[in-house]
């Protein structure tokens, strides 16, 4: 894959996260999420895919949930208007039958760091 500038890479990640063919293949979808996390840890601003990452949290794959929750906790203070969707998702996962999902959701909800999240959580 050729080197992409940050805007081109963000557009490509957004397109890949929204692609229904990629979403149908669990491994490919997880790899796209891993690329988002990789860019995030390298210092690139990937807050533009916040909505797609919130949608990606609706899965039964625990590894994918962990990656998405890491992303949401990092970028929720920057996207406070969309962070309410993340809080909604985390609240829904707090009532999941799996204790691992419940614990992960609760831990992620407690690590959100922005002012208006206390009202909603």
From TrEMBL:
Any Pfam family: Adaptin_N
Domain of life of the native organism: Eukaryota
Statement: the UniProt record of this protein carries the keyword Membrane: yes
TM region(s), chain numbering: none
Annotated Clathrin/coatomer adaptor adaptin-like N-terminal domain residues: 10-113
One Gene Ontology CC term in the entry: endomembrane system
Main location: membrane
Biological processes per GO annotation: intracellular protein transport; vesicle-mediated transport
Membrane-topology descriptor: Peripheral membrane protein
Subcellular locations according to the entry: Endomembrane system
Classification via Gene3D superfamilies: Leucine-rich Repeat Variant (1.25.10.10)
Keywords, in A-Z order: Membrane, Protein transport, Transport
Family: Belongs to the adaptor complexes large subunit family.
PANTHER family, per the entry: ADAPTOR COMPLEX SUBUNIT BETA FAMILY MEMBER
Protein name (Swiss-Prot/TrEMBL): Clathrin/coatomer adaptor adaptin-like N-terminal domain-containing protein
């Amino acid at each position: 894959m050729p080197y992409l500038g940050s805007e081109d890479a963000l557009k490509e990640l957004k397109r890949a996260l929204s692609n229904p063919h990629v979403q149908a293949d669990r491994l490919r979808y997880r790899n796209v999420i891993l690329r988002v996390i990789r860019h995030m840890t390298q210092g690139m601003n990937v807050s533009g895919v916040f909505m797609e990452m919130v949608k990606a949290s609706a899965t039964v794959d625990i590894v994918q949930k962990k990656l998405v929750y890491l992303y949401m906790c990092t970028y929720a203070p920057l996207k406070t208007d969309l962070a309410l969707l993340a809080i909604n998702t985390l609240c829904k996962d707090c009532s999941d039958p799996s204790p691992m999902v419940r614990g992960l959701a609760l831990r992620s909800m407690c690590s959100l760091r922005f002012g208006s999240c206390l009202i909603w959580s």
